Amino acid sequence: MPPALELAVVACMDTRHSVEKVLGLKHGDAKVIRNAGNILDDGTLRSLIVCVHRLGVKHVAILGHTKCGMTLVGRGEFRIAKNISATTDVPLHEVMRPDFQRWLGGFEDVEENVRRGVQLIRTHPLMPRDLQVLGLVYDNENGRVHPIID
Amino acid sequence: MPPALELAVVACMDTRHSVEKVLGLKHGDAKVIRNAGNILDDGTLRSLIVCVHRLGVKHVAILGHTKCGMTLVGRGEFRIAKNISATTDVPLHEVMRPDFQRWLGGFEDVEENVRRGVQLIRTHPLMPRDLQVLGLVYDNENGRVHPIID
Fold first, then answer.
1. Distance between start and end Cα atoms, chain B
2. Backbone phi, then psi, for A42, in 5-degree steps?
3. Three-state DSSP class for residue B64
4. Which residues in chain B (85-144) have CB-CB distances under 8 A to chain A?
């Protein structure tokens, strides 16, 4: 079933905001994709391809939020790797492969991360040139959403 | 911030159900990851690694739902590929690479898809052996959730 607003939202898995409430969406208005850090990982790109090329989505909004936990992951990959190694059979040196930090997707700047996602969709070869892509950041402290101008 | 119930939910991006309402979750109870078909794609695995090894998640629920649109994608990859080709610069033969259908993640059986996701997490080398993983299916017609016994 296509979403009523022909909209897909990429948001964070974080619990401090409800995507529907933040954007004033009714049930059925949008497809909602959520992951750690609202980044354009491979699975999110896959989901957007289905949205755009099968479900009639014409607008994509990337919704970041202030104080995102993924800003800690950007410098905290060793802590995660140690925890993996301590709770599984995989030795630390195997967890810490050269691409591990990049794969985790941590970042330092919430707005820059949203901007990067917007650019990635806009320039992606499998996305239509007339797809509208908007970047937004939700402020956990004052409850406001502001657009990322680019 | 860790989720209050130490729970992460992997659900579908579909609009016909609110994850929180279906599972009776309050805001902050769980991290919610959503993608096309609630499958364990690379991005969802990445998000779960952050949940489990950084945010104290001890329980993972995979929540499928009846009449999932991804059961149509499993046999409809040619339609999607044609739409991509018609709206971008990528010729059809380049869209239809050998792994395109698999990458899209379509499936035929909703319960089997949930069961496959549960098994993938339970046997994944980077997941702790004491992680609890539960499979659930939401019935769009009667509003009930039933567990997938395996």
1. 32
2. -60, -40
3. strand
4. 87-90, 95, 103-105, 125-130
Q: Closest Cα to residue A109, out of A65, A71, A147?
A: A71
Neighboring chain A residues of B41 at a CB cutoff of 8 Å? 42-43, 46
Look up the ipTM and state it.
0.95
pLDDT, tens digit, 9 for 90 and up, residues A74-105: 788 999 999 999 999 999 999 999 899 999 99
Alpha-carbon A113 to chain mean position:
9
How far is it, in rounded angstroms, from Cα B23 to Cα A60? 27
Beta bridge partners of A30: A7
- Give the CA radius of gyration of chain B: 17
Cβ neighbours around B107 below 10 Å, total: 18
CATH (residue range A7-71+107-148): 3.40.1050.10
For residues B60-75, average pLDDT: 93
